[in-house]
Amino acid sequence: MAENKPVSIRIMGNEYHVASPEDEVAKLEEAARALDKRMRDIKDGGRVMGLEKVAVMAALNLSYELMHGEHTSAEESREIDQRIQALQEKVDNALASTAQSELI
Q1: Total-model pTM
Q2: Span 4-103: which CATH code?
Q3: HEC letters along 7-51
Q4: Residue 56 scores a pLDDT above 70
Q5: How far is CA 48 from the centre of its chain?
Q6: So where are the chain's domains?
Q7: Does position 70 have pLDDT exceeding 70, yes or no?
Q8: What is the number of other CB atoms lying within 10 angstroms of the CB of residue 24?
Q9: CB-based contact 37:61 (threshold 8 Å)
């Protein structure tokens, strides 16, 4: 099992510190860039305001695409769900850490 490595990712101008297995860092960074682009596209569309709402819309769009993809098997869907949960936990931890540090 690969050891976790601290990684800094930037989404919508905010820096988040997460831990990732060393062999998954490149994939995590790629996912962060894709999410940043998608969120910027939503924000630039002018229909959604506020970072939280933009994030929810991006997550909803990604979830829909994953659930209704033509070439996604049940096993792939489960794996994707597990990855989404793991990323969500990393983001939640990073947000909690950021909120805690802002209180100090």
Answers
A1: 0.62
A2: 3.30.160.880
A3: EEEEECCEEEEEEEEHHHHHHHHHHHHHHHHHHHHHHHCCCCCCH
A4: yes
A5: 18
A6: 4-103
A7: no
A8: 16
A9: no
